[in-house]
What we know:
Layout: E1 4-8, E2 11-15, H1 21-27, E3 51-54, E4 61-62, E5 72-75, H2 79-95, H3 110-117, E6 141-143, H4 153-161, E7 167-170, E8 177-180, H5 196-200, E9 206-208, E10 221-226, E11 235-241, E12 244-250, H6 263-267, E13 282-285, E14 288-291, H7 294-312, E15 317-320, H8 327-341, E16 346-347, H9 350-353, H10 355-365, E17 382-386, H11 390-393, H12 395-406, E18 411-415, E19 428-430, H13 437-450, H14 456-462, E20 463-464, H15 466-473, H16 478-485, H17 489-501, E21 505-509, H18 511-514, H19 519-532, E22 543-545, H20 552-557, E23 564-565, E24 569-570, H21 574-584, H22 596-605, E25 610-614, H23 618-621, H24 625-633, E26 637-642, E27 654-657, E28 666-669, E29 674-678, H25 691-701, H26 711-721, E30 738-739, E31 763-764, E32 783-788, H27 804-809, E33 814-817, H28 819-825, E34 832-836, E35 841-848, E36 856-860, E37 873-876, E38 883-884, E39 888-894
Parallel strand pairs: 1-5, 15-16, 15-25, 17-18, 17-21, 18-19, 20-31, 21-22, 25-26, 26-27, 32-36, 33-35
Antiparallel strand pairs: 1-2, 3-4, 3-5, 6-9, 7-8, 10-11, 11-12, 13-14, 13-27, 23-24, 28-29, 29-30, 32-39, 33-36, 34-35, 34-39, 37-38
Helix pairs in contact: 7-25, 8-25, 8-26, 10-19, 13-16, 13-17, 13-19, 16-17, 22-24
Bound molecules: iron/sulfur cluster (SF4).
Amino acid sequence: MKEIALTINDRELKGRPGNTVLEVCKENGIYVPTLCHLDGLSDVGACRMCVVEIQKERKPVPACTYPIRDGLVVKTNTERLEKYRRQILELLLSEHEHNCLFCEKNGSCELQDLIYQYCIDRPIPLINKEIDPIDDSSPVILRDPNKCILCGRCVRACDEITSNQVLGFGNRGSKTFVTAEIKQLLGDTCCLACGACVQACPTGAITEKLSRFQGRNWDISKIETTCPYCGVGCQIELGINNNKIVKVRGVESGPDNMGHLCVKGRFGLDFVQHPDRLTTPLIKCNGEFREASWDEALDLVATKISDLKRKYGSDALAGLSSAKCSNEENYLFQKFVRACFGTNNVDHCARLCHASTVVGLAAAFGSGAMTNSIRDFGESKVILVIGSNTTENHPVIGDHIKRLVRTKKTKLIVADPRAIELTKYADIWLRQKGGTDVALLNGLMNVIINENLYDHEFVESRTENFEDFKKVVSEYTPERVENITGIPKDQLVAAARMYAEAESSSIVYSMGITQHTTGVDNVLSTANLAMLTGNIGRPGTGVNPLRGQCNVQGACDMGALPNVYQGYQSVANENIRATMENAWQAKLPEKPGLTVLEMMNQAEKGTLKAMYIMGENPMLSDPNLNHVKEALENLDFLVVQDIFLTETAKMADVVLPGVSFAEKDGTFTNTGRRIQRLRKAIPEVGQSRQDWEIIEEIGSRLGYSMSYQSPSDIMEEIASVTPSYGGVHYDRLDGQGLQWPCPTREHPGTPNLHKDKFTRGLGHFTPVEYRPPAELPDECYPFLLNTGRIRPQFHTGSMSRRSKGLAEIAPEGLLEMNPADGEKLNIADMDWVKVSSRRGHMETRVNITERVPEGTVFMAFHFGESAANFLTNDAVDPVAKIPEFKVAAVKIERLEKQLQTVKGS
Ligand code: SF4
């Protein structure tokens, strides 16, 4: 690229076309004061603090908007400029309520810093201005207009980062103010409380409401770590005072979030200091818990496990590991179950969300993970989002996609039965009936083949089994697909052309694809589509499953699965098993173990006698909760290791208090295969102990010694026995982390998979026929129930519902129902209803909304008091054993009584 030569403060410098003077100054360490500029946002030159002198320009100009050109001569520090800047500051001060004594931003206010820097040594009298009321209507954000300097950073952050456009300017001239929509009260708007405005504000005009009086800025220590909620893996900076998290900031250099966070990551981490935290081991006696010492609790666990193993054999024991725990803890847990219990009965909740991905993508490509990187979506000309409510479940990725569409960098196709937020941004919205994705994807491929839009060269050189696949797809004409899916054939054809004709197209999917009895078929179909069009192995392409929890990718990588060790190495393979026996110095079981749902079935039958559950809550997360309850009640012994007394922990015989993400060192692997650090920010709460130490202690008591000094020590062992993590060491993880495969210390990591060759060699086309869901609405149960998540809550709510801000934003679960159905059943918005399926029932209030189509209802599963999983179907995909959370038949009855509490059974 051509360089541009210019002179700044007598230094001869170079810039790139499109650079501004400010950018060249920053790159070359030349300080220019700014207020309205913020990296990552557009520049407007509003505050004029960054004015510079340009040779032959009569007046100073803002450096942030002035483009460079060859031969430009710039001065940034003349006396005239300094005087000018000082006058600007004095003007700002004359309108700014500058009582720093009461301001939360005192000590980190950019205006305050500049006032000091420019030696303004006296208060500037406030011009005669009315005091505006403070807006505290939002549960988490406080707006004080009296401290606003109209830099517009919040307005641009709201518009450009999240595309929400809640904040804007009202009035004009000297009466200009920042307003939240036209109502002016933030809490009454559609603000999503991501807090981008808080992070952007240079003064105390927009601050974190719940952080007030929690600590002065100079008392707060800062530590960078990884968000413990979803799989995006946003990098966060925790502000700690008195061993409490008092503030959270997005880390601008975070590789996948670039400073942005959603409401959970920014305002939902106070669960760590919730009084419900478990602080001591508990042992159940006569149905009641009593506190116990660690030695007593650990001895009891070891004795019971040892007795049951002796009496019933190793396979009468099972363990559930956790997608909320670190890689190191997951590795150790599966090692413990295999080497110590002597069984492969180990699984975790990936079974419930992306087991179909692990199986399907491994069959098609040889690797069951996201093929490309999160940032790589920016290279896509077309993104097909299917079965992913991205803005609710992976909000930072959702906002990224919205931004790409709004800036016309990407076209968007959304396939979803619900009118999710992304459908508003979509060029084409395919509204398929629930559970018909295979037909839809086959229909797209039918059009692509018939119109000869497929990539012949890629298919011939990089894939196998095309002819068998083509034969099946040829049956899925647009007319037939319209009959099955309800998608008008013209829309299907338009979407097929848009996806196939683009230079680079990417598929993004999530649990709308995987959580079906046809989950593996759905995943295989997305892989077929990508291979057919050569959209794999290049930037901006790929098949990208978005993983739900913070470390669900890592828990799979670490072998918390019944059929594979860490790195997806098969337990049934003799050579691999021999290597692991040698590494772990233990005799290992040969037979693959039970999946989560199989464990519940065996427990109910009485053949599984004991379970050790670390950081999982099947009593809310699993389908058909009545069945889960019976199964857990039937166990001889249940141990739960967790940070709260969850619905599952309440059923345990022994509860062991582990630690939260903020109290531990370790690593998480995000949905983009990026391994990132967790850093200990506060001490363990009460007598709680590091999860890896607890496992180690029980191992020792069972006669299997594991003596690590730290999580880093465990990672060294992981690297030595996991080819794809071979080059992962803590000293390499600061900054951007590493994306696996990273086989050696010298390897830089792999942003995009399958570049010249698939992991399995040739990509494999699988012919897939459409099969309907296991249970469809009928006369007795006339509604189709779809379940999922909402942005302000997370998984079974054990963490997010203990966050004050999140609990206020989303206090209860609501059943979404189409207005036409509401009218038919005489149900109005916020009425109470009883929802029943063949498996159970629960009571909830209703949200009447066009978001769901007629005949379908939707419910999030986070809420224990109206638990959707009493209703869901535990029929599973035959290969991945993932249950069909997305389709169940239910009936709905209006409740006359306005109940005070809700319940399920
Ligand atoms: Fe980022 Fe997900 Fe955390 Fe939100 S919940 S801040 S999107 S990692």
